[in-house]
């Protein structure tokens, strides 16, 4: 590539060698590496370029796949502003306002203006009272779906999969709502689709499609999908790729990945440094989700299991 001045960029056709304005030339749609002066040159050069193109496409895909996701799966609690745990038992979804509240804030005591503890069942965020009937709850559910709330849409897909909350079991409907939730940014929806294809739930078993949806979910920050990709690579004997997936899943708070990396270290598939980094990453995650209120809520929940 050469330049005439800072405003004009010239490129050379990969087939005939003719020079032309870069922004006017025909670029390879797959690898984006080479340019052609016209579609005819692009077609003529295809057989020579194919191997390098395919190799670059794989490289670009892996660069995107193994990049640490910028988003946390559930974000931060809107009340205490601490990272929400990835386990479903660590947070609660509110149909009234569509917020995900950490259990620490959900069960935190409420006091009146005289400092006395009061029995409060209102939403910790928007202060809306809970629904009085199942019908009222379902109406809130429908409103959240109509408002394009990805969590409500995802949950509706789960209802159709299981045939719960008054909905018939319908995998077609489940996939429809999961795709809609995924397009709105809910990574767990894509993970569920991947799981369905992997296990033949409502669709025929298709490992290629399962991997595709796991990858989409993982790149959005879903640590369960990331762990599943690691397991798939490990089962195929691709230990280096498996380790990469597990390391990212650990940073997302997936404890199973830490345990797997420890086993890989013992078997010689991971180094001591790998395991040390993974352990520190998981400890950092635990530090980000820890709070006194959450510890108290967890302790109360544990006591309720036995009494």
Descriptive tags:
three-stranded antiparallel β-sheet, mainly alpha, 4 domains, globular, Serine Threonine Protein Phosphatase 5, Tetratricopeptide repeat, 54% helix, 307 residues
> Ends: how far apart?
74 Å
> Could you name the ranges where pLDDT drops below 50 across 5 or more consecutive residues?
none
Mean pLDDT: 90
What's the CATH superfamily of the largest domain, by name? Tetratricopeptide repeat domain
Helical segment tally? 13
Radius of gyration using CA atoms only = 25 Å
The H-and-E topology, N to C, reads as EEEEEHHEEHEEHHHHHHHHHH
CATH topology of the largest domain: Serine Threonine Protein Phosphatase 5, Tetratricopeptide repeat
* Arrangement of strands in the largest sheet: 1-2-3
- Please bin the fraction of helical residues: 40-55%
Shape type: globular
* Extended strand count: 9
> Based on the structure given, which CATH architecture of the largest domain is correct?
Alpha Horseshoe
Query: What is the CATH domain class of the largest domain?
Result: Mainly Alpha
* Quaternary structure classification: single chain
Task: Please explain how this structure is put together.
The chain has 4 domains: 2-49 and 56-62, no CATH class; 74-129, no CATH class; 131-221, Tetratricopeptide repeat domain (Serine Threonine Protein Phosphatase 5, Tetratricopeptide repeat, Alpha Horseshoe); 226-296. It contains 13 helices and 9 strands. It has helices spanning 39-44, 46-65, 103-106, 134-146, 150-162, 171-183, 187-199, 207-219, 223-235, 239-251, 255-267, 272-289, 292-304; strands spanning 2-5, 8-12, 19-21, 26-27, 35-36, 91-93, 100-102, 110-111, 117-118. Strands 1-2-3 form a 3-stranded antiparallel sheet, with no helix packed on it.
